[in-house]
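Write out the 3D structure for:
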Amino acid sequence: VSTQSTWGLLKPQDQMLARFAIKRAPLARAFAAMWPPIKGSKVVKGPEEAIADIKSGQTLLIGGYGRLGAPFTLLDALKNTKVQDLTIICSIAACSERLSVLHGLFQDKKIKKIITSDISENEEIIKQFKAGQLEINFEPHGILAEKIRAGGYGVPAFYSHVGIGTFIEEGGVPTKMAPDGKTILSVNLAKQKREFKGRECLFEKSLTGDFSLVKAWKADSKGNCLLRLGNRNINPDIATSGKVCIVEAEEIVDIGSIDGDDVHIPSVFVHKVVKSLPIPPGATACRLPTCPLGSGELQGKREAMVKRAALEIKKKSYVVLGSGLSKIVEHYTKKDIDAHFITPETGLIGTQQVMPGEKIGCGGDLLDGAFYPVKLRKNAAVVKTSDAFSGIRGKHMGVFIVDGFQVSENGDLANIEKGNKVLPSPGINIDLASAGTPLVVLMEMTTDGKPNLVKNCSYKVSGRKCVKKLITDMGVFEFIDGKLTLTEVMPGISPDQIKVKTPCEFNIIPDLKSMIQQTYSKTIIHIRVLEKYYGAVSYTHLRAHETSLHLVCRLLLEKKKNT
């Protein structure tokens, strides 16, 4: 009974007797040490032994979303080997160096190719790509998860409508550069297209690899694994898609300690199990909420945009928010709306944002797609990434609200690159734009004097004719019967002023409404009062479901001001 693998064979009463014997009798301990372990244990001594079979030139599937559920121990061990020229498949590589679990491998130039959905913030990856040292292939996040899932389930290929009309379909985006950083050696190829039920779909090949590296919370010696909260994300699908699956677990427990109904990765997919080492310092860091509203007049306009977007959320609906301004729409949603906010990247259905100063619970295991801490509602659910995106493609959501860089007059959306980068990072944006669910876009009319509402998008698009409603700092546009139509204006703004800011032609409804209702103007007055007595104030000072008037009273009382 000296090994965990044999302990589970004993009946409960025998376990009790064995505990007593081991504690009381040295002879019993000696006898127990002679009991051979059960055959079939998958536990290995250390990470070096676990990855010993990985060879140069092989393909590795890496679990986790950024640092969330990432196999730190296995990757650190891999960094200290002589393995080179690896192909990496992972959900995201967009983290800055401080949060990237792959940074060590990139630093030592062990990776020759990466297949991922986003690299936007990782300067080391961009640097190696421009130097011709790295090949990059992009996939929309949901499709990447589905290709990995299909590969593990033995499905060689499938058709999907995600990416129609974008670079995913058309190809032409550089995947490999020459060392001079200017010559393009290869591009992504156009995909085969076929029509199903009147809808065009793209042919997608599944993804598999030589090894899968995943992270579990608990694993038994047979390989049954239990994953914790947001750490689940893409790990269950990654585990199935490699010829050999290596699991690192925070706890290795007795056989039978994990209830069969709680197993997220069954032992049939697992080949090796190793104990996790302590996570590197700073690796568990998450971002703290920040205010994207700006200050002064800009803050007032952006706040009005966000509040107007919040009105698009219906009661009991399921909502996906993008990054930037759209991320804080949740905070301006009325409490009685009771909407479910979805974080598909980490498989969280029904989240609430953690406010500044609020304690981050669950050990930082609950993060949204931008690595901001969240908490779960009482009726929330945690699923794997591919299941969350199936809800998006299957039209089970109510509305998507995202930021835009450009919108064309026929409803095309560009929000994956601004034209100043070699590489577009699709993330979840192409998945959302292709879903057919109502898509609301937040966008300022101009940037540095250049119009953002344009005839045709000059940036790479996320989707064609996908925008339902456009909320700007001057007014609200809807696409009615496919025609761009002005339906609301900001107070003090006329349609003629808007026409100056865009080359697009648009209709104007007869009963043009004001974009800011009475409650909005009250809120702006409250914020201005606070700025006078309290200093700079933004949405980050608001507590959950707190109105601006409550905020005025609370903060002024805290400062002991009389008003």
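Confidence is low (pLDDT under 50) at residues 1-5, 28-38, 518-522.
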